Amino acid sequence: MEIGESSKSKATDEQNLQPAEKIPFLCRECKMSELVHYYGSKPPFVRNIEFLEDCYVMKDPFSAPPLKNGKRSYTEYFLVIGSKCKICEEDFCKDCSIFYSNTFCIRCAHSQVSQFPVEIQSKIRKEFLAIKNDR
Amino acid sequence: MGKHKRRRSYDSDDYRHQRKRTPKCETESDEEFSFLNHKRIFHKILLGYNISEQLVDDPADFWLFLTKYEALLKRSMQSVLSIKTEAPQTDSIIPSNYDKNYLMNFKLKPSKNQMTPTSFDNEGKSIDDKKVEIFLTIVRHYLDFKQKERFKKLKKLRKFQANLPIAPYEKEIVHAVKNESILILAGDTGCGKSTQVCQYLYNAGFDKVACTQPRRIACIGLAKRVSHEMLCEYESEVGYQIRFEKQKTKHTKILFITEGLLLRQLSDDENLTQYSVIIIDEIHERNLYGDFLLGICKCLLRARPEIKIVLMSATININLFSNFFDEEQAKIIEVPGRLFPIKLHYMPHLKNPELKLEAKSSRSERLNPEPYIQLMSMIDKKYPKEEKGDLLIFLSGLNEIQSVVDAAKEYNREKQNWIILPLHSSLSMQDQDKVFDYAPEGMRKCIVSTNISETSLTIDGIRFVIDSGKMKEMTYDPNYKMQRLKEMWISKASAEQRKGRAGRTGPGICYRLYSEKEFYELENYTKAEIHRVPLESLLLQMISMGLPNARLFPFIEPPSIENIENSILALKQLEALTIDEKLTSIGKALSKIPVEVFLGKMLLIGSIFRQLQPTLTLAAALNVQSPFTNRAFRDLECEKLRADCESTHGDPITLINLYREWLLVKKSFDSRDRDRENSRQWCRKRGLEEQRFYEITKLKNQLESLLRECQLIEEKTDEKLTAAERSIRAGEKKYLGSLKRAHKMEAPRERRLLKADDDEMDDEVNDGRIDIRDVEFRLSMGSKINDLVLNATATSGTDLIMLKLILMSGLYPKIAISDEFNYLKSMNEQFFHTKSKPYISMHPMSYFAKNFQELHVSGNEMADKVGIYKSKYPLSSKHQIICYLSILETTKPYLMNSMRMPAAQTLLLFAQEIDCNLTFSRIICDSWLCLDFPMPETGQTLVARSSNLRNRWNKLISMKLDNEMGCQVKTEEFDALERDLANFMNCEVVYTIKRLLPADLKNLYKGNRHEDCSNLLLNQNPFCEDFACIANDVKGGVYVTEHITYGCVDETDWSLNMAEEIYMTEFECPGCNMIFNMTNIQKLQHFHVCKPAKNEEEQKEFLQPTSSNQKLYKCSICKKEMYMTNIDILKHKKICKVIKEESI
Ligand SMILES: [Zn+2]
Ligand SMILES: [Zn+2]
After folding, report:
1. In terms of Cα–Cα distance, which of B563, B494, B538, B534 is closest to B295?
2. Do A1 and B244 touch (CB under 8 A)?
3. Residues B1072 and B1121: beta-carbon distance below 8 Å
4. Residue A57 in domain
5. In this predicted structure, which of A28-42, A49-63, B117-131, B947-961 has the lowest mean pLDDT?
6. Does A100 map to a domain?
7. Fewer CB atoms near the end CB (10 Å): N or C, chain B?
8. What residues of chain B lie within 8 A of the CB of A1, using their CB?
9. In the prediction, which pLDDT does B311 show?
10. How many CB atoms lie within 10 A of CB A128?
């Protein structure tokens, strides 16, 4: 028996739209696996920013979507899960990679560690060690 | 978590900045430059011109970030203006120089407006582009920080899921569901089964997953949690459906649903084809619907072999379930729980301490709190204050909790290191919530609880558990139709659950106040609900689902046959089932209303008899928990303030009066006027829990839409508002809407730090938060609140009588009679009897407990002696019976929710068996209440009136239900019936009323003494024209209606006297003005046919033809000439003959 829907917290029209196909993401390192809404540098659901490379982006799952006359900004409505390593071109999550002008997976970054400025070398070494110990 | 607080501290910083720094601004050098000094203009940049230009979600949070950022730079002697805004372009993939800007994977692209602000700041200085650029760089850093936080949050969530004890079993579970029909998954609380299994199955490709829960609140909570984990909190893949509330769209793949609702879906879709997997959670709880569902699963597997069933349970009694599904070859997976080690101490010796407290407490029934205090003191000595960990004490009930709480507070007066918190379901929500708050450093919470925290409430941080080994359990006695709340030993399973509560967040200690031997003697499991509750609703539902014989249903543990038979009998009494257990139209309607059957019947009758609104209020009020807090009857002030709402008619009426009063407070209160007493304060002062009134309002609306759906009431007519009213309403709605949005932004109630001297009245403070229940109430009510007040309760006398009769129609045969000696006794010695259970007390919370005299027949209400009639029972027209909602046995049996009714009238309207003697001067109702009417013909008149009213009442109900005339039953008919009912209930007839014992019955009936009853077979039945009298073979006499047996009760000397007197007294019929000597029944018959001649006008009509099939008839006996139909002529001939005979 169905009784009137008494609490509609979400916009009804949105509920009835077919959700767009999602893109699978799998981190080569930690196997983090998620479905994202967008791959690229200009996600249509975000405003005022542009990514410097192509990345796997989902709409921020932890907050309500911004509304035209709401208070939530469109600028923060995203969550980048990861992107391709500039060197090996495999997919990595944000935890298993480092961004310095480009995304580098920790392994590739470690293999080239001396090329990086000293300020971030120790970070690369530390993270590499963490990955190795995890194995 | 700290968002709320951070914002606040930011605000105070801001204030300081403005006061101290602003004067310095004119001379502000680049080194000293702070964006905070130019907040106005940069804030504009931050917000842009509209929401799509706004750069951050929470500007206040950004300013806090900026404050810290600047402070950090300042500490390293850097000016904020010196930070780099953009990293240089480079050709190499790895830039060799270090620049923080290379660490960010996005660039900001604000609108042109934001980049070149044309306005000037406070001081008239323009802000140069460089500063804007620096500001935007900080914004970028902030956004980068925020996106990292979000990513961390996601990772943390995934890590949490991966660490759940159930996670390693994902593959095994998916494999089992794919390859088997039925899986039993056993895992303890906290293993993650309720949140994870549905996700595993969804990820494996099952997309029509239903998961049942025993509790509504769990459906909502789980749907929220699972959608959070599946990152679709703001979409609809995961939904829930509970009674009256649905969050489900066509995209919903996982649905959490209450057991009751899934069962209801079975009547529309008998194989539940809308689901591919059905998960039944918490089957170990063994509640009524869960058990029923297990049987249904067995049937489903036969009807739909491809369906997948997952049964989830705690790790108790798995054998019972696997044996039940032996034939289906259920696969079993066990997931070990995760508990820290718990040290167990049996301490039976503490239970019988030196009787030093015993002397103090006068009542030996009271629990001795001494052992609990000893253990608290031991914890104090043994465990240093710095070692955190709270104490949870399990007791059986409210009184026990009170006595331990009192003693613990006494103990703590010296120690000052405990925070004592009672916990039970009749506490207010606010007080219940306190158990989740933190104790200050160096202090421990001591939570004194019923078994509510055994499974349904989970409190973290418990290190010590004291288990009394006792609980109070509600059982149902089908023979007395009585609920029994009894203290008893818990089961082994419960004892283990209680112990487990100590090891959720760290190693713990459990003290059992009983011996190991006693533990081993405990029952293994708690008794299933099906053995403890009445079964009317379940059986009715089964029959309406097409399971006609409950006696054959595969219950995992079948209920007692007594309970089944008694429930079927009760359904017959409610006229929901026919004699041969078929659904009646009342039964059909009742099965659609998901409330207890007697409330359903009330609603049904209420909606038919145009008392919809007050009946809805009443049904809703009786269906939610009592609004009275335990302070309500202890605090004299509370009682005094409630006095004007008390009704002398009894508790149900008082309840709806209180509700109406509450609505009035709500109506007159203006949320913008802060000084007026609001409804929350109004409730608190009267010892009422406001939440219950909101629940009543909600339930009332839901019941109404339900009745509308079953087409028992007409569609709502549009609200008739004037244009002015509409515009006021629109403005109000807008304002309330803004309040609601503001509430959404408020952080949820956080765990707070408890105060050391937390006492009962401290949350009087209205912390300025929005009362969202009030806002929602107003939004949903709108202008209806006026109607609501008007219609909440019966206002006129007739309405009140109707309302009481409507309630009675659902409650009968739940009636009780006062003990004959009550009038001699004091308040505490008043007793009442029902047919099956003698000596019941009035519940102390009842109106009649204190006002017990209301139920007595007072001296001036006593009538004088009549004729030779002698009785030790008082003769009066004011006898009352008590109808009640339930009998509850605690220390003794109590009548709950009582209402008084005029005795004879009520019995004659509702009794199933009305047995009379020849003069209707002695009437026995339902074989236990005997009424004597010593005044000639008074009993007879009353019976005749009541049977006439019953006929009309039933006719209108069946007309309405069978929809023979649509909803077009004439209002005049209702008006007339209501008027006549009111007159009937108010009529004054003197009688005695006496309770009969089974032994008395033997001597009161003619029985099958083979007396000739043929003279009683009235060829012309004055009670019901179309009812052919038949002999009653058991009691003697004849049935003159379905319920009335005439002449089966033995005569007495006074009744024989009366018969003679009636016959000897000359009778002048007021209708035809003729004089006869007639027996009482002849008089009745005469009235029946004399009717048309009752008044002059009608008589005249006979002198003129009023319809074509009347013809002129000249009676040879009375010599009158009349226009009559053939039937009238026959009738006339008959009376005329009778009159002649009698007159001789
Ligand atoms: Zn990774
Ligand atoms: Zn790589």
Report:
1. B538
2. no
3. no
4. yes
5. B117-131
6. yes
7. C
8. 261, 264-265, 268, 592, 594, 709
9. 96
10. 16
Rounded CA-CA distance B1135/B1144 in Å is 14
Q: What is the pLDDT of residues B460-476, one digit of tens each?
A: 889 999 999 999 888 88
Please tell me the distance between residue A94's alpha carbon and the centre of ligand 1 in angstroms. 7
Query: Does domain B342-357+366-526 correspond to CATH entry 3.30.70.1050?
Result: no
User: What is the DSSP pairing of strand B277-280 with strand B308-313?
Assistant: parallel
Residues forming CATH 3.40.50.300 domain(s) in chain B:
164-335, 342-357+366-526
For B387-419, write each residue's pLDDT tens digit.
889 999 999 988 889 899 999 999 999 888 999
Nearest to B693 by CA among B789, B767, B609, B764: B789
Would you state the CATH architecture of domain B528-583? Answer: Orthogonal Bundle (1.10)
Which residues of chain B carry a pLDDT beneath 70? Answer: 1-27, 113-127, 351-365, 426, 428-430, 455-457, 670-676, 714-751, 756-773, 776, 778-796, 963-969, 1008-1013, 1091-1111, 1116-1144
Determine the straight-line distance between the first and last CA of chain B, rounded to whole angstroms.
Answer: 101
Say which CATH topology domain B164-335 has: Rossmann fold (3.40.50)
Task: Provide the chain B residues 730-759 that lie in CB contact (below 8 A) with chain A.
Answer: 745
pLDDT at res. B1010: 63
Pick from A78, A76, A66, A58: nearest CA to A11: A66
**DSSP label of B552:** G
Cβ atoms of B263 and B291 closer than 8 Å = no
Question: Is the peptide bond preceding residue B902 cis, with omega within 30 degrees of 0?
Answer: no
- Whether residue B52 and residue A47 make contact (CB cut-off 8 A), yes or no, is yes
3-state secondary structure B255-307: EEEEHHHHHHHHHHCCCCCCCCEEEECCHHHCCHHHHHHHHHHHHHHHHCCCC
CA-nearest of A85, A78, A32 to A54 is A85
Structure tokens at B387: 């070692």
Examine the pLDDT at A17 and tell me if it is beyond 70. no
List helix spans (H) across B609-650: 612-623, 636-642
Which chain A residue has its CA at the smallest distance from B112's CA?
A: A48
Comparing CA positions, the residue from B301, B329, B283, B70 lying closest to residue B186 is B283
Q: What SS3 state is found at B140?
A: helix
CB of A80 closer than 8 Å to CB of B252: no
Lookup result for tokens 């190795």: A132
Q: What is the pLDDT of residues B265-311, one digit of tens each?
A: 888 888 899 999 999 999 988 999 999 999 999 999 999 999 999 99
Mutation site, A73, A83, A116, A127, interface B, largest B CB count within 10 A: A73
Nearest bound ligand to the CA of residue A28: 1
Q: Is residue A93 part of a domain?
A: yes
Q: Which residue has the tokens 């009946």?
A: B615
The tally of domains found in chain A comes to 1
Nearest residue on chain B to A6, alpha-carbon basis: B245
Q: Say how many C-beta atoms besides its own lie within 10 A of residue B282's C-beta.
A: 22
Residue B883 three-state SS: strand
The secondary structure of B769-795, three-state, reads CCCHHHHHHHHHHCCHHHHHHHHHCCC
B713-B714-B718 Cα angle (round to 5): 130
- Write a three-state SS string for B793-806: CCCCHHHHHHHHHH
Q: CA B1098, CA B1095: separation in Å to the nearest integer?
A: 6
β B254-258/B238-242 pair status: parallel
Q: Quick one: tokens of B357?
A: 């407290």
Indicate whether A7 belongs to any domain. no
Q: Which residues constitute the domain of residue A63?
A: 20-134
3-state class (DSSP) for residue B832? strand
